[in-house]
Amino acid sequence: MDRITAAQVFVSIAERGSMIAAADALAMSRAMVTRYLAQMEQWAGARLLHRSTRRLSLTDAGTLTLARCRSMLELAEDMALDSAVEEGAPRGLLRISCSQSLAQAVLAPAMTAFLQRYPHTKVDMQINNRAVNLVEQRIDLALRITNALEPNLIARQLARCDSVVCAAPAYLARHGRPGQVADLARHNCLTYSYFGKSLWQFTDVHGEAMSVPVSGNLSANEDTSLLRAALQGAGIVLQPKYSAMGLIASGELVQLLPQFTPQQMGIHAIYTSRQHMSAALRALLDFLAGWFRSDAGWLAHTPEPAQGGAVQRLPRS
Questions:
Q1: pTM for this structure?
Q2: Structural domains of the chain, ranges and CATH numbers in brackets
Q3: pLDDT digits over 16-51, tens only?
């Protein structure tokens, strides 16, 4: 029997928890799945699965064999990719991790264009607002918006992300409109758990940095939830422009403090290795870099700034 196919069968069983589910996923009969599993156990020289009436689970030997099978399949895929490079056509599956807001605003349309350009590639988008372990979670590329990358990460900056402070007309009708950055300390600010939860940072028209402590009765680890709450009049929110500017243009949200620029963030592509990068991943990195450079529609422009007053000053960096 084909050992590559046997490895695919075993990995599918382990990931789906049953031979029936594996058979369905691989378009294979259950009898054939059973034969491949038996062959894999014969090659491993050990029982790989605990079988029960409800679910299959890995033995210790099965856990070790699963890791080896995944490595075998990745190597087989790399060999196919090497052949594709010679033919000038990147191939294979790419797993990408990204926040929900960036996925909706940027990644979904970008991946549609990428797949049209490289029809032999596939993309699996993993929507996650936490930093992921690329190796453990088998992620080829993670997109993160941050200014604080860990020093051991391999990353390529794709663009800068501008933000905007905004609120619904209903909130402003009840609580008034802040005229200065310092006024935000007296408002109900909806905060993002992973960035700027208690301190929002700005630059004024003279290039001076400033900050204001903010607080509120709602925080979340996912920024689109805060945006929806702001639309319902829950409070003032700091959002990426790519999420908020369409709602501001429609009047559903009102931009606040346009004379002050919120701290700019970097949009980074993070991956595991420069030396062993597949042709498909290299093509994706180059494509995304070009997408951010050429597609101005993903990032709207801020209205012209007006003159503002003084708030707490920070030293220039």
A1: 0.63
A2: 3-85 (1.10.10.10), 89-160+265-298 (3.40.190.10), 163-263 (3.40.190.290)
A3: 888 888 888 888 888 889 989 998 888 888 889 887
